[in-house]
Amino acid sequence: MPQMGIIIGTIWGTQKYPGLEDAKMQIMQPICGVTRQHLGQPITVVDTVGAGPGETVLYITAYEAVIPYHRDMVPIDAAVVGIVESTYVKDTTS
Amino acid sequence: MILCKVMGNVVATHKNKELENNRLLLVQPIDLNRNPKGSSLVAFDRVDAGEGDIVLVVKEGGSARIAFNNKKIPLQSFIVGVVDDIDVDETILQSPWPVVSRS
Q1: What CDD domains does its record include (chain B) (predicted)?
Q2: What is the pairing mode between strands B23-29 and A24-31?
Q3: What CATH number does the domain located at B2-94 have?
């Protein structure tokens, strides 16, 4: 939306939909930005900012996920759009 | 649009160039009684919302492209207003239909 996730791995494949040959695909675990709780199962995202495993990232889904990619008409439904350096969350217990 | 509470912010300098120079806030969707509901979102701030504020968040990419006047912005959620007060009469839901006739 963008949302937050943690990159946990990479997917390699040469046989892909035309136009996606050079798409760098990574495995990402969606998390809640406030509690860092894992949300659902890991998903595959196309990385356009050079995030590596272990990094917390911002990702986007749906139609907007194709925008950062350098080709238009390609089937991408989740893409990394930023790398998170830090988050500040007010002490929710107070 | 959904009601959210601003919980904090996110620092991410290394990102898609269309997303630069915008404040990234962490917001938590809330229900009408201001209790958390669902998982938090990262949203762009367009109205200088502060921490702890109740805000209105748009969650749709098309609206983002219109609001930012940019077809190439990979964004869906952004803040469009700070809520000062919420006035809800929940008893309306309990009353039998029709409640108010506009004839």
Answers
A1: EutN_CcmL
A2: unpaired
A3: 2.40.50.220
- Which among A32, A48, A81 has the least Cβ separation from residue B39? A32
Integer-rounded Cα Rg, in Å, for chain B is: 17
How far B72 CA sits from the closest chain A CA (Å)? 6
Query: In a 10 Å sphere around its CB, with 0-12 CB exposed, 13-18 middle and 19+ buried, how is residue B20 labelled?
Result: exposed
Q: Domain residues of chain B, as ranges?
A: 2-94
* CATH code of the region A3-83: 2.40.50.220
- Taking an 8 Å cut-off on Cβ atoms, the answer to whether B61 and A34 are in contact is no
- In tens digits, chain A (94 residues) has pLDDT values of 569 999 999 999 889 999 999 999 999 999 999 999 999 999 999 999 999 999 999 999 999 999 999 998 899 999 999 999 999 997 755 4
ipTM score of complex: 0.81
Q: Chain B: nearest CA to A40, how far in angstroms?
A: 11
What is the token pair recorded at B50? 């502060």
Q: Tell me if the pTM is above 0.90.
A: no
Residue A84 CA to residue B96 CA, distance in Å, equals 50
Amino acid at B77: S
